[in-house]
Amino acid sequence: MPEFYQYLSAAQEQELASIAQQIVQPGKGILAADESTGTIVCNDRKISDHISGVILYHETFFQKADDGQSFVNKLKNLGIVPGIKVDKGVVPLAGTDDECTTQGLDGLAERCAEYKKEGAGFAKWRCVLKIKSHGPSHQAMIENANVLARYASICQQNGLVPIVEPEVLPDGDHDLETARQVTEQVLSYTYKALMEHHVYLEGTLLKPNMVTAGQSCTKSYTAKDVAKATVTALQRTVPAAVPGVTFLSGGQSEEDASLNLSAINQFPGKKPWALTFSYGRALQSSVLKAWAGKKENISSAQVELLNRAEANGKAALGTYGGGVKSSAASDSNFVAQHAY
Ligand SMILES: O=P(O)(O)OC[C@@]1(O)O[C@H](CO)[C@@H](O)[C@@H]1O
């Protein structure tokens, strides 16, 4: 008989599953504000109609807003789950063709325990994979899958839902088929490692790239093509026990990210997980453009945030048909080799 050791108690499992479910309620998703300061935390209760979680980074997590209230408490009062980016960035993987891994495991358990005590409900850790003529390599896929699994296990031991983010970058001229095949490979390595580390899948969320052609691919594809490739890749690799898939926006324009998410939700076929957003750039470019760092622009920037949040909330239900007015809706958000 194989022997299994206890990984989590039933109460720990229940807590993690319920946080994950709260984040992926129908029509809601995550604002990834772990890259930009404050992203103008909005006081308008309407924001929580479409946003269920916000990812902060260490400094903002412990900061207070102008009224003296901490960002974390502000979010909780709005019914939004505060999240925290816990990785310490992308570093080179020696012996590969410019591939990388992500560091930050040292001291992670202690940091997670502290974030939990201060009100965090979930965490995120981003790994980056690159499409090349001979890549991503086995070395990069196995290393990134393992580091994601160790991170996920440490988070769960400390009561935080891990968002597992293996991002296949859009850099390159590869077509949609190639992006789909690589995404399938990367996700299958990822779930093998999560299973090997006993990660409780019901208490996790996946944050993958949508399957899109390379940024400099000469062929063009419709939102329906992207939806088909993305849903196919997920069906083949993501266990049904995972409660939700919260896509990153990966340099798509705000409008493309919303239209593609809506098409993904409309796409027929088996989709046992919630399919929603955890956008950084695609929820912030209009906001940051309108704000321009000036106090007098804060209310118009907040309107931009509400508009994009509403568009993506609809997209998460498959009912966004386009047309929400935003000042940077069709601007490209592509950043080459986005390795932040
Ligand atoms: O691709 P996007 O939607 O802009 O950002 C996705 C994301 O995971 O990547 C960024 C860099 O780590 C984070 O700020 C953000 O959470």
TrEMBL record:
The EC number(s) this enzyme carries: 4.1.2.13
The keyword Lyase is annotated on this UniProt entry: yes
Pathway terms, separated by semicolons: Carbohydrate degradation; glycolysis; D-glyceraldehyde 3-phosphate and glycerone phosphate from D-glucose: step 4/4
Family annotation (InterPro entries): Aldolase_I_AS, Aldolase_TIM, FBA_I
Keyword terms: Glycolysis, Lyase, Schiff base
Gene Ontology BP terms: glycolytic process
Catalytic activity: beta-D-fructose 1,6-bisphosphate = D-glyceraldehyde 3-phosphate + dihydroxyacetone phosphate
Keyword set includes Lyase: yes
Molecular function per GO: fructose-bisphosphate aldolase activity
Highest taxon of source: Eukaryota
Sequence similarity: Belongs to the class I fructose-bisphosphate aldolase family.
Name of this protein: Fructose-bisphosphate aldolase
